[in-house]
Design brief:
This protein is an alpha/beta fold and about 400 residues long. It has helices spanning about 15-20, 45-55, 75-90, 100-105, 125-130, 145-155, 180-185, 235-240, 255-275, 285-290; strands at about 5-10, 25-30, 40-45, 60-65, 90-95, 115, 135-140, 160-165, 205, 210-215, 230, 245-250, 300, 325-335, 340-345, 350, 355, 360-365, 380, 385-390, 400-405. Helix 2 (about 45-55) packs parallel to helix 3 and helix 3 (about 75-90) packs across helix 4 (about 100-105).
């Protein structure tokens, strides 16, 4: 069994470095103006060039998303950007538009092409068709179950297959949603989604506008269009048996903290599953870790339909669940003093439950020992503060410090 790559979102250079530190085999990021995420989750050509340099030094691949549904006004930009991407050495581009594919094959014929899940590839003949167009990897539609995925992998072994294993889910078919465009004029298919599926809705009858139907028994509003988040860590042997080449984590818009926790947890789990698929057991601490990032509850999506389990991913919670958040990131380890210098990103009070996330372990940090640069103890630190903590081992730059949120 070939070990699949762990593919991690990198919305900016900091997240790219974080993904690499915590165990990514590959990262994917948006290209400025051409991906399906907002501008804060896209990189300029210069940023991408630096990201490729940093990643390749660590043996990590970089894939660039140019997956908008392009209009004529976009084509000149596509031509320009594709040439730049080839020049800086990205390991592949992710796209869904046949016109964009044609331009890539014309401008940079040696550049590897990955077909986005937006293309809704659900069968063997479609995979063969796209292979004939020069596509080397296909991100299969999220609506397939593991048995269907395994059948495609057996039928077309020469094409790499990629599937999502963790992250936010869209209830629109393969993510091709029109709600945002209809309600706000901002198109999800051009990277401007306002996520109206996360808004609160009630059902009303025309002649009774003041009598909304509440669909939940405990009197809460229902998110009629909102899915729970995907989580497949408990079923990694079944995922591996399907024969896919890449396991993808969703979240280019998520925080550095999310990238660190989810990457590290799936790195541990994937290594364990590949080493002993039959003996694999999902450790309770891995599930606990994934509960410590913002989430909407978890589901296995459509993957387990072949076991008689229908999609049960509707979320009836009023908001995201979150128990821990980012406190700061490590700037420097000072071995002579046994200290780390941390750039705080949120308020941290002396006495807050605080943990340092290393690639291989989690260290409890005594926040009452927090000092400023002159060695004075601090009762509280705020965003942009540079503070010190004592540690008993080396710590890499970029390591994440987290704190338990008040009231959780």
């Amino acid at each position: 069994m070939k070990k699949p790559e762990l593919l991690v979102p990198a919305g900016d250079l900091e997240k790219l470095r974080t993904a690499i530190l915590y165990g990514a085999d590959a990262v994917y990021t948006g290209v400025e103006g051409l991906s399906l995420r907002a501008q804060q989750a896209e990189m300029t050509t210069a940023e991408l060039a630096e990201g490729v340099r940093v990643a390749h030094e660590q043996g990590v691949k970089v894939y660039a998303a140019i997956n908008i549904l392009a209009r004529n006004s976009d084509l000149a930009v596509v031509r320009e950007k594709v040439g730049e991407l080839a020049e800086i050495g990205v390991d592949g581009v992710i796209l869904s538009d046949p016109g964009v594919l044609a331009l890539v094959r014309r401008v940079a014929p040696r550049l590897a092409v990955h077909l986005s899940t937006q293309a809704s590839t659900t069968n063997t003949e479609a995979v063969r068709f796209w292979r004939g167009q020069g596509v080397s990897r296909i991100v299969l539609a999220r609506e397939l179950d593991l048995a269907e995925i395994a059948a495609i992998a057996r039928d077309v072994p020469e094409v790499e297959l990629e599937i999502f294993i963790h992250g936010a889910m869209c209830l629109a078919y393969s993510g091709r949603c029109l709600l945002s465009s209809y309600l706000t004029g901002r198109s999800a298919n051009r990277g401007e989604c306002t996520h109206p599926c996360r808004w609160e809705y009630v059902l009303t009858e025309r002649t009774r506008p003041d009598e909304p139907l509440i669909l939940t028994e405990d009197r809460r509003y229902s998110y009629l269009l909102s899915s729970k988040d995907l989580r497949m860590i408990e079923y990694l042997p079944e995922v591996l048996a399907a024969g896919v080449s890449s396991l993808k984590i969703e979240g280019r818009m998520k925080t550095v903290y999310y990238v660190a926790v989810v990457t590290r947890t799936y790195r541990w789990a994937l290594d364990a599953a590949c080493q002993d698929p039959e003996g694999y057991r999902c450790a309770p601490e891995w599930l606990a870790e994934l509960d410590k990032v913002s989430n909407r509850g978890y589901t296995t999506g459509f993957y387990l339909k072949h076991k008689g389990e229908a999609f049960a991913g509707l979320n009836t919670e009023r908001s995201y669940r979150q128990t821990y958040g980012l406190a700061g990131t490590v700037l420097q380890y000072l071995p002579e003093e046994g200290k780390i210098l941390v750039a705080l990103r949120n308020q941290l009070n002396a006495g807050d439950e605080t943990e340092l996330l290393l690639p291989e372990a989690t260290l409890a940090i005594d926040s009452t020992t927090m000092t400023d640069e002159d060695g004075h103890l601090l009762a509280a630190g705020h965003n942009s503060y540079r503070v010190y903590f004592q540690v008993d081992r080396p710590v890499p730059a970029g390591a994440v410090l987290r704190r338990r949120l008040a009231g959780t």
